[in-house]
Design goal:
The protein has 116 residues and is mostly beta strands. 0% of the residues lie in helices and 39% in strands.
Length: 116
């Protein structure tokens, strides 16, 4: 466990360990939950499809493409839960493949009515 105070800035880094130097990593979705095995019942989205859902969530520059850096302010799920667990989905793409998910950034998908 990592202990922090409320509203403290948390900084995270995800690194891809591969011998292939032509791969990059992208943070797609991060969800927080008070339960380490259930990220649906009580959950809070920090980012979804590369789009920030939380106003304190930020992506930060990284030294290499195989490293993703991001952060947000610490929070709690009302006072009845002592812990917050984080699950993030990352995407790995080929470097310079501009049609890949990694280069699209925030992708907001809107559902349309079948009548329109």
């Amino acid at each position: 466990p990592y202990y922090v105070d409320m509203d403290q800035n948390l900084f995270l880094q995800a690194s891809l360990h591969s011998s292939d130097q032509n791969l990059i990593v992208f943070v797609d979705t991060c969800v927080a939950s008070p339960n380490s095995s259930d990220f649906r019942t009580v959950a809070y989205e920090l980012t979804k499809s590369g789009c920030a859902s939380d106003p304190t969530y930020s992506l930060f520059p990284s030294p290499r493409g195989d490293v993703a850096r991001f952060g947000f302010n610490a929070f709690s799920f009302v006072n009845r839960f002592p812990s917050v667990f984080l699950r993030c989905e990352l995407v790995v793409c080929r470097y310079h493949d501009y049609s890949s998910r990694c280069y699209q950034g925030c992708v907001s998908r809107f559902k349309r009515n079948a009548d329109s």
